[in-house]
């Protein structure tokens, strides 16, 4: 992104604050819908440089999601130890992790953790994404509230542009080799560019035109739409916004991205 484009994005972020309010997708306003979120927790290191997992848990409590995908929830190297108190998170929020095969001390798969409140997990796949960095995706098939067949893919794409393109192609290949069903793809894609070389453009073949970008990074004054939630059916996502609170601006360098999923739109089942 050029300096002029960054300046334009910063000005737009200041002017367009309608999507930067405290959880505009409140539970009492959901009308039977489901709230999903994607949140890069930056290894629980906030914008003030402090390691503080308690703040991350509190932000998740503020959001009160039905499903949330976390990135960077484990240490990157060594034993990849998990950084959050998952038993406490389940006690306070009802969120429990989708089961994965992992190292004894880690939470998820290459830093990706997918948590949900209600439903039955039918299948889980852990996908290693290509590239120089240890990136991955979790693919979970979940039945929610007597509705069958929602596929959720939680992913964290790499910092290198060529790797993101390959990683997007891998995700498309995964979808192509499985039964067609309503699918949500969410995570930190580290991509703001569009055009033929963009990983985002590659995903349009399955997920259609991209939703309007919502800046989520950096948390203090977001100008880049690095975090994304997209669906392979046009009526599945009813609304999107960032969760912008004083605590969220400090807890991580990303703001959480939220999406209201319309369970009554005929997309599920």
UniProtKB/TrEMBL annotation:
Gene Ontology cellular component annotations, sorted alphabetically: membrane
The Endonuclease/exonuclease/phosphatase domain, residue ranges: 37-254
GO biological process, one term: GPI anchor biosynthetic process
One Pfam family it belongs to: Exo_endo_phos
Record-linked InterPro entries: Endo/exonu/phosph_ase_sf, Endo/exonuclease/phosphatase, GPI-anchor_lipid_remodeler
GO molecular function, one term: endonuclease activity
Keyword set, alphabetical order: Endonuclease, Hydrolase, Nuclease
UniProt name for this protein: Endonuclease
Species: Ciceribacter naphthalenivorans
Organism phylogeny: Bacteria, Pseudomonadati, Pseudomonadota, Alphaproteobacteria, Hyphomicrobiales
